[in-house]
Amino acid sequence: MAERIHPGDSPPSSGEHSNSKPAPPSSDKPIPQPGTYVVQIPKDQVYRVPPPDNSHRYAHLSKSKSSRSTCCRCCCCLLTTILSLLLAAAIAAAVIYFVLKPEAPNYSVESVAIKGFNLTSPSPLSPEFDVTVRADNGNDKIGIYYKKGSSVNVYYQDINLCNGALPVFYQPTNNITLFKTALKGSGIELTAASLRSISNDQNKGTVPFTLKLRAPVKIKAGSVKTWKITVKVTCKITVDKLTASSKIVSKDCDYGVDLW
């Protein structure tokens, strides 16, 4: 019968018979005990080296990030170029302004001769207005070319009574030009309310009209000409009567420009 060896007893000698298994060979490394272990991996390795199953996703994300970076650089370059061009245009405009010192021309209606108003007849009207317009170009270095395609219209309330056009001419620097334009209308039918209104205005000696002038012009500065610019003039005028000898009681003109 085999002997029991307790931890406090000395191991049996080589000659003694024993059924116990021989002890495992000794090693310098400690033998791990069963349980749960924590494995520490360097931080740079965790971020730089993706797991094999996520390598394709990592490559896709890296490519997308590179594309976004390229797009951002292109947008920044484009924005910088646009801002540079705008700055250069602003500087050029400022230089031109201080060199030429442009002034807006002044426009006014000097006289109006009216024909063709028979308010006692029920037949349609064929009014005629001979309008004299005063254009004052007070610029020292800028001339104005008045081109074809202008229009002049006269309205009573919202009714277009007659229309015409300005002559084609060149206005030099520091110049005042008076030009007369003949405006004609045909087959103008006024309602009973409009006839009563214009008759009452004539009896009071204050007949209001609105004159709208639109003229394409080119500005000349030295040897340089601009593209076509549309001059817009709207004048509120009041005359005392509807005859060839009518006189202007009051007038007020507004001026504007369409650059394109």
UniProtKB/TrEMBL annotation:
InterPro entries: LEA_2, NDR1-like
One GO term describing the cellular component: plasma membrane
BP-aspect Gene Ontology terms: defense response to other organism
Lineage: Eukaryota, Viridiplantae, Streptophyta, Embryophyta, Tracheophyta
Region of interest (Disordered), ranges: 1-36
Compositional bias segments (type: Pro residues): 22-33
Keyword Transmembrane helix: yes
Topology with respect to the bilayer: Single-pass membrane protein
Biased composition (Polar residues): 11-21
Segments passing through the bilayer: 78-100
Record key words, sorted: Membrane, Transmembrane, Transmembrane helix
Organism: Gossypium darwinii
Protein name per UniProt: Late embryogenesis abundant protein LEA-2 subgroup domain-containing protein
Coiled coil: none
Residue ranges of domain Late embryogenesis abundant protein LEA-2 subgroup in the record: 132-235
Highest taxon in the source lineage: Eukaryota
